From TrEMBL:
<keyword id="KW-0472">Membrane</keyword>
<dbReference type="InterPro" id="IPR045866">
    <property type="entry name" value="FAM210A/B-like"/>
</dbReference>
<keyword id="KW-1133">Transmembrane helix</keyword>
<feature type="domain" description="DUF1279">
    <location>
        <begin position="30"/>
        <end position="117"/>
    </location>
</feature>
<dbReference type="GO" id="GO:0005739">
    <property type="term" value="C:mitochondrion"/>
</dbReference>
<keyword id="KW-0812">Transmembrane</keyword>
<dbReference type="InterPro" id="IPR009688">
    <property type="entry name" value="FAM210A/B-like_dom"/>
</dbReference>
<dbReference type="Pfam" id="PF06916">
    <property type="entry name" value="FAM210A-B_dom"/>
</dbReference>
<protein>
    <recommendedName>
        <fullName>DUF1279 domain-containing protein</fullName>
    </recommendedName>
</protein>
<feature type="transmembrane region" description="Helical">
    <location>
        <begin position="39"/>
        <end position="62"/>
    </location>
</feature>
Length: 134
């Protein structure tokens, strides 16, 4: 048996069982589903909360007269993408919702990163409280 073939196959085994490598292969919606599956109500509550805050912030920005097309263009969104999603003359809420939807990958990334830390922190605090009660 060829030793170089064994060495070449070894890294494949490590990445197949490495959860971080598996997480990188998933798209954003699959990562979010995995967080919901692993952390349940905490993941869902956090994501819904951050979504409501996001929508509220964008609604305030649009209703305050901020030119969202200019802001999004500066952030790197293409002109064609902006024009197709934000038609002239749309209502404040519809425009805020369209911008909110454009930022879905950001919200999902925040949820995917923050929820495991939040759950770990809550478990640590809960474990500490139980230890002091005894």
């Amino acid at each position: 048996m060829d030793i170089s073939a064994l060495n070449a196959a070894e890294p494949l085994k490590k990445t197949d069982t490495d959860p971080s490598a598996e997480n990188k292969k998933l798209n954003k919606s699959q990562q979010l589903k995995q967080i919901f599956k692993e952390y349940g109500a905490v993941g869902v509550s956090f994501h819904v909360g951050i979504s409501l805050v996001s929508l509220g912030i964008f609604y305030l920005a649009v209703s305050s007269g901020v030119d969202m097309s200019a802001v999004l263009f500066r952030l790197g969104f293409s002109e064609a993408s902006l024009q197709s999603r934000m038609a002239a003359g749309t209502s404040t809420f519809v425009l805020a919702y369209a911008v909110h939807k454009l930022f879905a990958p950001v919200r999902i990334s925040i949820t995917v990163v923050a929820v495991p830390f939040l759950v770990r922190y809550c478990r640590k605090v809960n474990g500490t409280e139980k230890a002091t009660e005894r």
